[in-house]
Amino acid sequence: MKKTKLLGIWSIALFWVLLQSVQAQEVGASAEFIKALTSEWKGERMSDGRPKVSDALLERLKNISIEEAWGVLRNKGYNNQYEGDWQIIWPDSAMTGRVVTAQYMPLRPDYQNQIKEQGVSAEGRSAKGGTNSWPIDILTTGDVYVADGYGKIADGTLIGDNLGNSIYAKSQRGVIFYGSVRDQEGLSEIEGFNAWIKGQDPSFIREMMLTSINAPIRIGRATVLPGDVVLAKKYGVIFIPAHLVEDLVITAEVTALRDQFGHQRLREKKYLAGQIDSEWTDEIKKDFMDWLKNYPGKLPMTQEELDNYFKERNW
């Protein structure tokens, strides 16, 4: 009898713990949760907890090729950070920035009611308009709005030109949607705005709902965390963990310089193709270092960064 009573008490206690957990479920992830997700980042953070990769690195990243970025990540064991096959408003423009994530799901009324109640009452989000404006409200300069719209095209349009203008005004960037937009013509008229999308349609958003902001999401083949840094080009999109950005940039920059040096020496017929394509001899390494010292132009990195790079690597 005592055992049955004790089990009953534990059941009631567990019920209340679970109930409080449900009530406390946030639409927007807390700063503590984001910090835990991105614990390998040791630098400055945004007010919402996301890593604050420097603007200078974001700018340098634009010059890195998708293949170079992918190669560095793959060598570090990050094999699921790329997604291709996009429709792009301005294909010849590159975009980099700090990721703000949003996840959408097919509409379920009871869950949507809970999301709206939590968002408006507990988190102070806007009660006017659709919940698809909520991720836009928190954007700051340098952010890229990345949304999993589960590939929905018709009735899956996450923004039109009004929200597009708001996005650009807040972030000076664009969007990456595994979903669609409407009024692509109007969006294309927003100077500086760009979008990587899976499609476009004239319909309004219907039968779908926002379920989370700044939680982990899936974008096609890629797993994306809030605070990742995105490199978006016409050849695809790479999502880079914040703690790897600096190393990725310098590694890719040096790789590009090695390629430039190798191509030049092959044109000059100084070395054979096999010598450049295999492990370099000490003679070629010295030639490369001398070539760097007399580089015709400005190197993409500082001399200190270059020296540190070669200190820590055995070619």
TrEMBL record:
Gene3D superfamilies the record matches: Ribonuclease E inhibitor RraA/RraA-like
TM spans (from-to): none
Top-level taxonomy: Bacteria, Pseudomonadati, Bacteroidota, Cytophagia, Cytophagales
SUPFAM superfamilies: RraA-like (SSF89562)
Keyword list, A-Z: Signal
Protein name stated in the entry: RraA family protein
Leader sequence segment: 1-24
Keyword Signal: yes
InterPro entries referenced in this protein's UniProt entry, alphabetically: RraA/RraA-like, RraA/RraA-like_sf
Keyword Oxidoreductase: no
Pfam families hit by this protein: RraA-like
